[in-house]
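Chapter summary example: a protein plus CO-5-methoxybenzimidazolylcobamide.
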Amino acid sequence: MEAQLQELAQAIIDGQRKTAVELTNKLLEAGATPKTILEKGLIAGMNVVGVRFKGGEYFVPEVLVSARSMKACMEILKPLLAQGNVESRGTVVLGTVSGDLHDIGKNLVSMMAEGAGLRVIDLGVDVTADKFVQAAKEHDADVIAMSALLTTTMIYIPKVIDALAEESLRDKVKIIVGGAPVTQEWATSIGADGYAPDAASAVDVLLDLVQQRRASR
Ligand code: B1M
């Protein structure tokens, strides 16, 4: 079974969706738990993809095919994981901010975060402050993750932070921001807790912020 789990991780790394789905089904038939398949197959594979992406060895297309392969396997595992009460590593409410329709980078963050075992509530694009606040409450979010691709929409991010403060949520939830015009310096200046230049780094920051949030509870 160990060898098949490694084959599954490799299929994710290579973006071979059909093979990955077949292996997921075979592993379930052989008695592997959904948790083992998730951790030792899918997450293990996506971890390598993240490292290669950060190292400049993989580019967006490679990451997308790997992430889509992972998502196809997750469709099989999700209902089984829900039955087994497998805890996610944390809850992230994610969206591209109001006025902004760019979602390719945001979707990468979403898929890679799911690949790392986080529960992602993806609100899509053009997300207003109200929607972020409502989703943070409804899902008891650990982190609010905001993407902006336009210089005209990144300035909406502080409005969401203000709205969270008005609802007394600012101390209860961590905030990460990203997108092409966003920098670490700007993120710090608006009081965000984290910033990442790419989707793979975003996952590292997200896991760190979840830990910080849970430690401060
Ligand atoms: Co638009 N667009 N666009 N566009 N578009 C840009 C962003 C632009 C730089 C192009 C240019 O002029 N050179 C420019 C912005 C200029 C500026 O603000 N300074 C621009 C413009 C002006 C516009 C319109 C206003 C054009 C018009 O209509 N006149 C319009 C706005 C629409 C709107 O949003 N209201 C518009 C529309 C569009 C399309 C719809 C045609 C399409 C979007 C399709 C879609 O997303 N479904 C589009 C595209 C594709 C682009 C470019 C070409 C590519 C963006 C992209 O997907 N990159 C872009 C130019 C460019 O970047 N070369 C451009 C790939 C993606 C993987 O990268 O999203 O940066 P990115 O994500 C990265 C990181 O930023 C990071 O991780 C990803 C990598 O791993 N990241 C995060 C992203 N979100 C993160 C969140 C995090 C952490 C990291 O934590 C939460």
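Key point: Strands lie at 91-96, 119-122, 143-147, 174-178, 194-195.
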